[in-house]
Specification:
The structure holds two protein chains of two kinds.
Chain A lengths: L3 H27 L7 H22 L9 H31 L2 H10 L4
Helix pairs in contact in A: 1-2
Chain B lengths: L2 H39 L9 H4 L2 H26 L3 H31 L8 H34 L3 H30 L4
Classes of the chains: A mainly alpha, B mainly alpha.
Chain lengths: ~120, ~200
């Protein structure tokens, strides 16, 4: 059952996570990209976003409730589809770029008449 | 109402909430496709500005905090609705509505700024995918605001009935969902964009 305390916990921790991610990026840019390596920083802010996802699912959308078992099941299967769509697109398009040689790119642009 | 009628109404509310949840999950898949398009295209700037030169992070942080607060006030509106306090329901949903409206206004200001500096959606694949993703979220917000305005009028005129409560529960679910999607737009488009 949702309570005021639950909403308050969800709200305050969401704000803290958002501002932490923002501050990390701002400090990083201000220090001319020297605080952390880019892959590490991206990992950290994505983790903060995932943390916020879990917090809001629990405290705002009450997915932890026993009566919401089916909602949770549906959500997890949706996550599977999302993973396929996003990772699949990135993988295929990256491989596509990788397999194009510069000559092929130039030829393509010439054929399109935009070169 | 006797207990069987109340149970029946409760079951109907639960069923429609689950149905609405299924819709939200399909909506989430659509957003995932837009995110995938953005992730694939965000380096294709066609000689135009890249994401790092365009975005104003403190402005977007303000947008994020406003939307987060509106999600919180929407939760509070849902709480007082369960206790049947009509006046408080009206005031908390009004707060949510105003916060949502300022969010939408700020987003449109941002779009107008980009447009005015020659970075409209027609400029590059990156900008097309950016405007499509963020614009799709903005359209959802606009639809949610319209829905909220209608519900405010209904509650004002007729007070709280089981049917109205069930509709308000779905509206609250929709609003929390939009806040969740925005967290990922904030992280992936804006924060990762300036790195």
């Amino acid at each position: 059952m949702p309570t005021f305390k639950n909403y308050l916990i969800g709200f305050i921790s969401s704000i803290i996570l958002t501002i932490t991610a923002f501050a990390l990026v701002e400090i990083h840019v201000a220090s001319r990209h020297r605080t952390l390596s880019h892959p590490l920083l991206i990992g950290v802010i994505l983790t903060l976003a995932m943390g916020q996802l879990v917090i809001q699912l629990c405290y705002f959308l009450h997915l932890g409730d026993k009566s919401k078992r089916w909602n949770l099941t549906f959500f997890i299967s949706t996550l599977g589809i999302i993973l396929l769509v996003v990772v699949g697109s990135l993988w295929i398009m990256y491989a596509l770029n990788f397999n194009m040689t510069p000559q092929q790119v130039n030829q393509y642009l010439q054929d399109q008449g935009s070169y | 109402m006797d207990t069987t009628a109340i149970n029946h109404q409760h079951e109907k509310t639960e069923n429609s909430l689950f149905g609405f949840w299924v819709y939200l999950m399909t909506d989430l898949i659509m957003f995932a496709a837009l995110f995938a398009a953005y992730a694939v295209l965000h380096n294709n700037t066609f000689g135009g500005p890249a994401s790092g030169q365009l975005f104003n992070l403190p402005f977007v942080l303000a947008e994020t905090v406003i939307l987060l607060t509106s999600s919180f006030s929407c939760g509070l509106a849902y709480l007082v609705m369960q206790r049947g306090e009509v006046k408080k329901v009206l005031s908390w949903f009004t707060v949510t509505f105003l916060l949502g409206l300022s969010f939408l206004f700020m987003e449109l200001t941002e779009f107008r700024r980009l447009y005015a500096s020659g970075s409209g959606p027609q400029h590059s694949a990156f900008l097309t995918s950016y405007f499509t993703l963020v614009g799709a979220h903005g359209l959802h917000i606009a639809a949610g605001l319209l829905w909220m305005a209608v519900m405010l009028l209904v509650v004002r005129k007729r007070g709280l009935a089981p049917k109205t409560n069930s509709q308000l529960a779905r509206l609250a679910l929709f609003w929390h969902f939009l806040d969740l999607v925005w967290i990922f737009i904030f992280t992936i488009v804006y924060l990762m964009g300036v790195l």
